[in-house]
Structure formats: C-alpha cells, structure tokens
Specification:
Helix content: 10-25%
Number of helices: 4
Distance between the termini: 10 Å
CATH architecture: Alpha-Beta Horseshoe
Shape: globular
Structural class: alpha/beta
Largest sheet: 7 strands, parallel
CATH topology: Leucine-rich repeat, LRR (right-handed beta-alpha superhelix)
Strand order of the largest sheet: 5-6-7-8-9-10-11
C-alpha cells in the first residue's frame, strides 16, 4: 500500500514522496501544486516537523526537542492561524483537546504515534483537507470526524479499528480513504455517499464483503 508524505519546503514548494501516480495526480489537483522539488524526494523520513515561521507553515524540529522541550498545549493555543501541523513519529499518547482551536488548519499529520483515541474536538477543524492518523493504536474514531466537510484525504490505516462511524459518509469532498490494516469486519454503506471518492484502501481487514453502495461510486478504485 502506498502512503503519502507532504513536507513544506517554502511558501511556493511542497515536497511529495511515497505517492502512487494516482495519488500524486489527485494531490496536485487539491493543492494546485505547480512546483515540485524532486531533488529532495526520499531524503526525509516524514515526521518531527514543528518549527514555525511567520507564514504559519512548519519546518523541521528534532523529535527529542519536540518531546522534551515543547509544551504542546500552550503551543497549540498560540497557533490559531496555523495551516499545517506535522507531529508524526513523536510517541504522542494523546491529542490535546485544544487541537480544536486551530480553525485554520488544513493539513494535520499525527501518524506513527501511540494514540488510543481522538478527541471529538477534531471535528472543529472545518478547513482541514488532509488528516493522517495512521499507524497508531486507535480502536475507534469519533463521529465528529464527519464534520470535516472539506477533508479530501483521510488515512486511518494501521490501527486497531473495529468499526468506522457512519458519519464518515458526510465527507462529501473526500477523494482518498485509507482503512487498510485494521480489524474491520464491515464498513458503513454510508461511504457510498462519497461521490468524489476515487481511491479506497481496505486490504488486511476482516471484511467478508464491501457494501454495494460503495462499489457503485463512479470511477472508484478499491484495493481489497
């Protein structure tokens, strides 16, 4: 299964790695990316990005500094204009409730941590376009995730999910959904409401069937 990584290099460049050709095409369209820095692709392991410039973008900060020196709750409260937040691979065990204050956030990466739950306040991030919660210890996600009406990429792979809330069917702009490597015995037929969904990853679950409503989405590619 392909994963996506997005690392901001400056205000006009986004570095993209580990994308399938289909995912890259979708991502370029979402963010209107015209200038890719291919020379630096695969040089970085995605994660440990949390330094701030005046434009609200994030740069690189070592994982040790993040864990040992940063008061995350205080920092989040100070970053109300933040657009992109990368906290992958930092051994986080919980997400501060104050995350819901970042109303301008567009990209949020929390993959590769030790999260067991997601606060319902995540549903306040109505401008969010990309959300990665993959590779954690999640057994469920809150129904408030259905409030993220601008979300276009959602990764919940590599967790311990036994179910997905039917509210996920409210994400009318979703284009890529990762649900692979969980413990799902079924997926909600409400996913069939996502008429913009182009790619759905379902492999390595306990599924016996995929609801016909999902298969009827025009042009969808399902990886089982």
């Amino acid at each position: 299964m392909a994963y996506f990584n997005i690392i901001p290099s400056d205000l006009n460049n986004i570095i993209v790695s580990y994308l399938s050709s289909d995912e890259l095409k979708i991502l370029l369209g979402i963010f209107n990316i015209t200038n890719l820095n291919w020379n630096t692709i695969n040089e970085y392991h995605f994660g440990s990005y949390l330094s701030i410039n005046e434009s609200g973008y994030l740069g690189k900060l070592g994982t040790e500094s993040l864990r040992d020196k940063l008061n995350l709750v205080y920092t989040i409260n100070e970053l109300i204009n933040l657009q992109r937040l990368y906290l992958s691979d930092n051994q986080l065990t919980q997400i501060p409730l104050e995350i819901g204050n970042l109303k301008n956030l567009q990209i949020l990466f929390l993959s590769g941590n030790k999260l067991k739950q997601v606060p319902p306040e995540i549903g306040n991030l109505i401008d969010l376009q990309v959300l990665s919660l993959s590779d954690n210890k999640l057994k469920q996600v809150p129904p408030e995730i259905g409030n993220l009406k601008n979300l276009q990429i959602l990764s919940l792979s590599d967790n311990k999910l036994k179910q997905v809330p039917p509210e996920i069917g409210n994400l009318k702009n979703l284009q890529i959904l990762y649900l692979s490597n969980n413990k799902l015995k079924q997926v909600p037929p409400e996913i069939g409401n996502l008429k913009n969904l182009q790619i759905l990853y379902l492999s390595n679950n306990l599924l016996t069937q995929v609801p016909p409503e999902i298969r009827e989405i025009p042009g969808i590619r399902i990886y089982e």
